[in-house]
Amino acid sequence: MAWNTNLRWRLPLICFLLEAAMVILFGVFVRYNPEADPHWEEEKRQHNISSDIENDFYYRYPSFQDVHVMIFVGFGFLMTFLQRYGFSSVGFNFLLAAFGIQWALLMQGWFHSFEDGHILISVENLINADFCVGSVCVAFGAVLGKVSPIQLLIMTLIQVTLFSVNEYILLNLLHVKDAGGSMTIHTFGAYFGLMVTWILFRPNLEQSKERQSSVYHSDLFAMIGTLFLWMYWPSFNSAVSKHGDAQHRAAINTYCSLAACVLTTVALSSALQRKGKLDMVHIQNATLAGGVAVGTAAEMMLMPYGSLIVGFICGIVSTFGFVYLTPFLESRLRIQDTCGIHNLHGMPGIIGGIVGSVTAATANVGIYGKEGFIKAFDFEGPKSDWTSQIQAGYQAAGIFVSLTMAIVGGAIVGVILKFPLWGDPADENCFEDEVYWEVPKDEESHMYRPEEPALKPVAS
User: Fold this and answer.
1) What Cα–Cα distance (Å) separates residue 366 from each residue in 64, 136, 272, 337, 387?
2) Domain residue spans in the chain?
3) Predicted confidence (pLDDT) per residue in 86-145, tens digit
4) What is 19-37+55-442's CATH topology?
């Protein structure tokens, strides 16, 4: 078969232009945070800091490493389940994430760390940039196999921009607590991606249906991504929490929720399948839903048993979604969700927002202690007269703001990507690496071709 999508001039031009823009903008705006600057020695003397170990780098960098692995290895390999799209799943995820973190450092920097005409970046900025790109990786799952690398770069450019605006509204204007990003990362990313794929609906996608399935080794590669995500999710949810008890709680709550989610996913996967066999799709995806749903309340006093309940519920909801809701969305609502992000990120993200609101509403001095209560929700300064019920109301409002931003933004991006000049594959060429990659010849000869019937033995 001939693959006729040619990006020889368009893709290099777009990549060079975007990177040139990043170099110029970084040169104009970006500088080191004082703790990454040679003047740190003077800062230490002025603030009576005795050791370099008190530099924020030593607290944050281990978490940054974990989150970084999740973005580039976890998400990348999670999407390799498609039998002929492994190069694109890992490679395009690599591309969009590498560009996205640069643009996120700028966008988030302008909103959160802009001082005296410069963006001051530290290791915490690097973590937040990875969080932002994580939302793009979520959206990528909905359009996986159906878009070109140019379309992904354009989607990343606009989504990072909208993510930063949405994040600023929630965290700075509504004062929402969302340590693990259930609302800002997962809800926003999922419904943004679903809206894009809805606009880009392909009525003749059945022509590529045989390539939308998995084979034994592709599912095994995808499971590698699942395990990396599952192991490092406690770091993801606690990475930017305040040092001390809040960060400690976030890791414990996430750990417990993920563990419970695995058992309920396995149980329901077996119960819903013929002959009680497990479905690898459920094990690869629904087992992670507990980490998504505990994100907003991760650093709150959710209690370990509460975390188990959240994981228990999300394993059920996510698995049911893969079995019943995904086919319904495609057949009735024309939403072709390749990776099932609605089940792993969308619904669990909304559940996470609700859990966060309810947990905030029940918070009191008896649970947190007087100083702990004030510290946990920043009830000081302009929020000194807030109550837990007011905080809960703003938490709930954050869900609707994220959904609105995602739906409107996704629709706009979908319309832009629909223009016929971005080199997207034809319906019959979707989910196929050979459209954009040089595939080794031995792979072309047997692995990337429909299985042929076995030859009958020749009579001697």
Assistant:
1) 34, 40, 43, 45, 14
2) 19-37+55-442
3) 999 999 999 999 999 999 999 999 999 999 999 999 999 999 999 999 999 999 999 999
4) Ammonium transporter fold (1.10.3430)
